[in-house]
Amino acid sequence: DAGxxxxxxxxxxxxxxxxxxxxxxxxxxxxxxxxxxxLGQGPQFIFxxxxxxxxxxxxxxxxxxxHQFPNYSSELNVNALLLGDSALYLCASSDISGSNTGELxxxxxxxxxxx
Amino acid sequence: xxxVTQLGSHVSVSEGALVLLRCNYSSSVPPYLFWYVQYPNQGxxxxxxxxxxxxxxxxxxxxxxxxxxxxxxFHLTKPSAHMSDAAxxxxxxxGSNYKLTFGKGTLLTVNP
Lengths: 115, 112
Hints:
The complex is a heterodimer. By secondary structure, chain A is mainly β.
């Protein structure tokens, strides 16, 4: 049973560029959430997708956008990159329509460096 | 709104000693509480969770935590530390909306 998979694992961009990160949820899960983890900090909630719609959003600017596909996979897009966007981006999946444990399963993350 | 405070950004113990990592939370609704572990350059792995059942929760690798509503705490313990326990530990609070709020983390160092 494959867990949450993310790609790419590492990438380097320059200021002003755009980036797309991808996530496949754990088998049987219908919800994908994205978190940003800056160096030395805890993960911060970006947004959550369920039924191909953004259901909840954290305190992140509109430069951060996402999408969920019919197969439940998801993308995170960040436009006009800033140095401060350098972080580990974590994808987490859950089964909202099934159990009610509140538990998230995390991928290994995509480490973004902005130069 | 929910929040988490982890007391101590760095805890150092000797191998075989008790591990105690502290977590206090704030929540306006009955919380779900979690402890996750993160090894270097990896994602988060769930250690244990509290979702309104038994207040003493046992997790993987010998860890356990006790939910104390009166103290708004959910401290993580392990009777005997092992070298492989060295990692960063995150306490998180959430609910049925599957949105987690994390603390800043505690780095656990285990000395031989």
